[in-house]
Amino acid sequence: MTTSRFDPEPVCCGVCKRLAHGIGYAPKQGKPVLWLCTNVDCIALGETVFKMAPKTLSAHELMALDDAGGKAGAYLEGIGKFDLTTLSATEWMEFLRTVLNGYGESMRERLLNHKAPF
Fold first, then answer.
1. Cβ of 110: how many Cβ atoms within 10 Å?
2. Angle, to 10 degrees, between the axis of helix 40-51 and the axis of helix 89-112?
3. pLDDT of 7-34, one tens digit each?
4. Band of the pLDDT at 115, cuts 50, 70, 90?
5. Which of 34, 60, 70, 81 is most buried (CB neighbours < 10 A)?
6. Count of beta carbons in the 10 Å neighbourhood of residue 29
């Protein structure tokens, strides 16, 4: 899933994929920068993710996506809708927020708790 962790300018957080804010981790000047958002856990995890093997990071990302999908499914159950085409614009946006926020929460939780990526 991970194609590139390093953007030349802040775009996406290297941990949760939310908007990066000019905070980054690089082992030294002139090296690639892993940009981060303002979440304190993402900032704390910058070095960990920077040094993580792409295969391991991709495994964590897939697990976090699966976790987020479970949260999105629970949201749909909660509103009693299972056909995405029947969601109102508000419900659709909440569904997407649930996926996005669930992914970020799961990535931080997995990495902070050193969960094995399998």
1. 19
2. 60
3. 778 889 999 999 999 899 998 887 889 9
4. confident
5. 34
6. 6
Domain count, the chain: 1
Domain region containing 45:
23-112
Q: Give CA torsion, residues 41, 34, 37, 22, to 10 deg.
A: 130
Structure-token pair, residue 77 = 């159950």
Backbone phi, then psi, for 91, in 5-degree steps? -65, -40
Residue 99 contacts residue 76 (beta carbons within 8 Å): no
Strands 34-36 and 23-25: antiparallel
Sign of CA dihedral 37, 9, 54, 72: positive
